[in-house]
Structure formats: structure tokens, C-alpha cells
Amino acid sequence: MTQPIFLIGARGCGKTTIGQALTHACHFHFVDTDLALQQQSGMSVADIVALEGWAGFRARETQTLMSVTQPGTVVATGGGIILAPVNREFMRQNGVVIYLNAPVPVLARRLEAFPEESQRPTLTGKPISEEVAEVLAQRDALYRETAHYVVDASAAPERVVTLILDALHLATAS
Ligand SMILES: Nc1ncnc2c1ncn2[C@@H]1O[C@H](COP(=O)(O)OP(=O)(O)O)[C@@H](O)[C@H]1O
Ligand SMILES: O=C(O)C1=C[C@@H](OP(=O)(O)O)[C@@H](O)[C@H](O)C1
Ligand SMILES: [Mg+2]
């Protein structure tokens, strides 16, 4: 299988972390839409949002998603990639989409430990645990409708990678 693998899910579910580990396990290339768009623009997510608003960031995100998608690639996306119908359609049509699903307390704990504010400027102005609950309630249905597979992302990273490989019927490459 060489179709791109798209990882989707809420902030803190592990798209970037698990994407890198998965890449090693299946010998794919790794790309992260946030890292790619920050490298292309020379700005952090927070800088882009401050200058261009969330609409500017979302437009760059769509362009980046389309430009980084290649066969043999694991694409870690940003948590809001599923907001645009064009992105949802593109991912479903061009690869296999995995929703890394984790409960609100797990997400909030991870984000409180490593907020990375330049990567994750506030979406609602609310404290992290409130924001995580509110945003996931708005987006969970979109993650589910976009995904080909839903994987429990609350386990340890190596376990999450195994669950993804199992879902894709890929053997672990040593
Ligand atoms: N399965 C996991 N178990 C424990 N911690 C994790 C796991 N996945 C990610 N993390 C941690 O959670 C934080 C957010 O992970 P990250 O990969 O940046 O998530 P995302 O890209 O989905 O926002 C990081 O500090 C990372 O080390
Ligand atoms: O959920 C979101 O709307 C966002 C998630 C972030 O990526 P991660 O999910 O990798 O943190 C980043 O794209 C941006 O801050 C917007
Ligand atoms: Mg990420």
C-alpha cells in the first residue's frame, strides 16, 4: 500500500507524535501540515493568525494539505483541517484517513503539560479544558464522517501505532 495516510483529530491527540512513529514503522515519509506551512511562510501559527486571522491560516492550510500529499506519505494534519469541506473531500478521495480519538481529559492533560502556544493559539479564549470540550463537541462528527478508521489514541504511542497498522492490515516493518 502506498496511498497517503492522513491523521486527523483534536489538538493533543498525537497526530504529530504518532505520525512520526508510524512513518518509521511503515517506511513512509512524514509531513505535518503545520510544520510545512510554518517552514514555507517563516511564521508560527500564532504569527499567521495574528496577521491574517484564522481565515488566512485556514486558506494556507488547504494549500499546504494539497501540496504535501504524495504516495508513501504519512500526513499529520492540524486539528481544524476537517472544518473545510474541500479538505474533507480531498483526504477521503486521495488516501486513507485515520481519526486519532481520545477523551477530553486525556487531551486536556497533554495540552496543559505542553501547551505550545505558538503552535496552538487559543480558539475560544477559554481555559484549555473548557476549550478542548467545546471544540471537540463541535468537531467530533466531522472527524468521524471524514475518517475511514477510528483508532483509540489514549494508549501509549507504540500501541497507537500498532492499532493503526492493524487497521490498515500492514505488518510492522522492523
Ligand atoms: N499516545 C500518547 N501518549 C502520551 N502522550 C502523547 C501521546 N501522543 C501525543 N502525546 C503528547 O501529547 C502532546 C501533543 O502531541 P502532538 O503529537 O503534538 O498532538 P497533535 O499533533 O495531535 O496536536 C505532546 O506533548 C506529545 O508528546
Ligand atoms: O485545532 C485547531 O484548529 C488547530 C490545531 C493545531 O494543530 P494540532 O492539532 O497539531 O495541535 C494547529 O493547526 C492550529 O493551532 C489550529
Ligand atoms: Mg500537530
From TrEMBL:
PROSITE patterns: SHIKIMATE_KINASE
Cofactor entry: Mg(2+)
Residue sites binding substrate per the record: D34, R58, G79, R139
Reactions catalysed: shikimate + ATP = 3-phosphoshikimate + ADP + H(+)
Record GO terms (molecular function): ATP binding; magnesium ion binding; shikimate kinase activity
Location(s) in or outside the cell: Cytoplasm
HAMAP family: Shikimate_kinase (MF_00109), Shikimate_kinase_2 (MF_01269)
Pathway(s) the chain acts in: Metabolic intermediate biosynthesis; chorismate biosynthesis; chorismate from D-erythrose 4-phosphate and phosphoenolpyruvate: step 5/7
PANTHER family named in the record: SHIKIMATE KINASE (PTHR21087), SHIKIMATE KINASE 2 (PTHR21087:SF21)
SUPFAM superfamilies to which the protein is assigned, alphabetical: P-loop containing nucleoside triphosphate hydrolases (SSF52540)
Enzyme class, first EC level, given as a word: transferase
Task performed by this protein: Catalyzes the specific phosphorylation of the 3-hydroxyl group of shikimic acid using ATP as a cosubstrate.
Name of the protein in question: Shikimate kinase 2
Renumbered residue ranges of the record's region LID domain: 112-126
Record family assignment: Belongs to the shikimate kinase family. AroL subfamily.
Self-association and partners: Monomer.
One GO BP annotation of this record: amino acid biosynthetic process
